[in-house]
Amino acid sequence: MGIGKRLGQLLEQKGKRPGTLARETGVSKNTIYSMIKRDNGKADLSTLEKLARALDVPVSAFYEEEADLPNHPAILPVQVRAIPLLGKIACGEPILADSDFTSYTVVGAQLNCDFALRCEGDSMIDARIYNGDIVFIRRQDYVDDGTIAAVLIDDEATLKRVYHLADGRVELRAANARYAPIIIGGDNETRNLRILGKAVAFQSNVV
After folding, report:
1. Global pTM value
2. What's the number of domains the chain is made of?
3. pLDDT-based confidence at residue 144 (cuts at 50, 70, 90)
4. Residue 34 belongs to a domain with what CATH number?
5. I want to staple 152 with a disulfide (CB 3.0 to 4.6 A). Which of 57, 123, 168, 194 is the partner?
6. Within a domain: 137
7. CB of 153 closer than 8 Å to CB of 184
8. Is residue 86 one of the residues assigned to a domain?
């Protein structure tokens, strides 16, 4: 079910018409009708936030749907919520992390995370994290040795295992033997390192 169909359901549940929603949000009536008619699977963040406020629902409500599941003890219904999808993070050489997010991604409601990043590159493939996967991050500024974390080197973000060395430096290790460790720190170090958070889960497509 796409966002447009959920929007139609929410309008019906709230007893509102598209024209009323347009007046309350400033989103054009044509845009709202187009979303419902075409059942658009994507919409920009600011539009969804305006619609959600007017309908008195969380943004995640546009991603929720009731599934008709068979009655079987091994089948577990999935409750979801939406979290910010910030942009891309390098699984290779560090790249810029776009902090001006424009979209959400859906995650299981019980997963303790704050935001998500889309991976680019192959440096974490031995941890089963591949190019295009989405990694879910719990925001924290310190992680234990061996933890996979999203880190900033100056203004560039990368996903690596973090190790704290005895001399105070930090080593960032890939999960791919083709990549050399990145060592940050020391008397002549000019780069700044900041841990964004711990990787708690990732999402891959089944191929």
Report:
1. 0.65
2. 2
3. very high
4. 1.10.260.40
5. 194
6. yes
7. yes
8. yes
What pLDDT score does 74 carry? 63
Instruction: Print burial letters for 65-97: b (CB count within 10 Å at least 16), e (below 16).
Output: eeeeeeeeeeeeeeebbbbbbbbbbbbbebbeb
- Asked if 23 and 96 sit in the same domain, the reply is no
Residue 183 lies in a domain: yes
Q: How far apart are CA 147 and CA 139, in angstroms?
A: 13
- Residues that are catalytic: 123, 160
User: Do residue 157 and residue 56 come from a single domain?
Assistant: no
What's the mean per-residue pLDDT of the chain?
Answer: 82
User: How confident is the model over 26-55, as a mean pLDDT?
Assistant: 80
| The pLDDT of residue 80 | 65
Domain that holds residue 87: 80-203
Residues 6 or more apart in contact with residue 60 via CB below 8 angstroms: 80, 81, 82, 104, 106
Average pLDDT of the residues in 66-91: 66
The per-residue pLDDT for 174 is: 96
Angle at 77 between CA 200 and CA 52, to 5 degrees: 75
Residue 107 pairs with which residues in a beta bridge?
A: 81
Residue 97 in any domain: the answer is: yes
| Burial group, residue 168, by CB count within 10 angstroms (0-12, 13-18, 19+) | exposed
Of the pLDDT bands very low, low, confident and very high (cuts 50, 70, 90), residue 26 is very high
Q: Dihedral, CA atoms, 126, 132, 137, 142, nearest 10 degrees?
A: 50
Residue 33 main-chain phi, psi, to 5 deg:
-60, -40
